[in-house]
Write a structure and sequence with these properties.
By secondary structure, the protein is of the alpha/beta class. The chain has ten helices and ten strands. α3 (68-81) runs parallel beside α5 (100-116). It is globular, with a radius of gyration of 18 Å.
Length: 250
Amino acid sequence: MAKMIDHSLLHPTMADIDIEQGCLLAKQYNVATVCVKPYSITQCKQILGDTDVKICAVVGFPHGNSTTTIKMQEALEAVKAGAQEIDMVVNIGKVLSGDWEYVSYEIRMINEIVVGNGGIVKVIFENDFLGEKQIRKLAEICRELGVAFVKTSTGYGFVKDGASGMYSYKGATIKDLRIMKSVVGDKVQVKAAGGVRTLDDLIRIRSVGVTRVGATATEAILEEAKKRGIGEEAVEVDVKADPEQASGGY
C-alpha cells in the first residue's frame, strides 16, 4: 500500500526544513514518490539517493496556465535534474474552450520529452472545474497518447461559489475515478489526488482500480494500516461506508 502513495510536499508555504522532514518520512515508509515543486528536486535527491523512493515533480502547477513551450522546458529541466515522474496540469481554459488540438499537442509534447529522458507523465485534469464530457474527452486523449497516468486533481483547484463567494473543493471522487478508469481501461493507470486522507479512503479508491494516490496524510494512513494488520500477507479488513455513496451520491 505504501507504494501506492505519492507523498505530497506541494503546499506553497513549505520551507526547506518541511521538505527535508517530508522526504525523511517518505524514506521511513518507503512510499512510491515524493511529489514536489521543481526547485526541491536537488534537495530531495540528497536525502533519497540511497532509496527506491522516486522523485515526482509538478509542471504548470497548479493551474496549467503556462505556455506549452514553458511547460516543455520546465518538464525537461525537471527530468534532467533528477525527477523520474512528472505530474503536469493541462491548460484548463483550453479544455473548457474545447480546443482539443491545443490540449492534445501539449500533452503529447511533454510526454515525448519526459519519456525520451527515461521518465513517465501523469496528466492532471482538475476535475472540480470540469464536466463529465470534458473528463471523458481528456481521458480519451491520454489513452490515445499513451501517457502513464491520468490524475484527478492538484489539491488546489478551489471553486468559487457565485452566491456566497466561498471556495470549496471535492478533489478525487469515486464517481470521477470510475469515469476515468472506464475510458482508459488497462492502457493507462489512474491517480487520485485531493481528499484522500484515511486508510478507508485509500481502500475505497483502490477497489475501483486506482493504483496511485497523492496524499499528505501518509503517516496516518500507513500507521492505521499497521493497526489493522495489513502487511506482506493478504488480510481482510472492514471499511467504513462512504457518506456520499451511502446517500446515493454515486
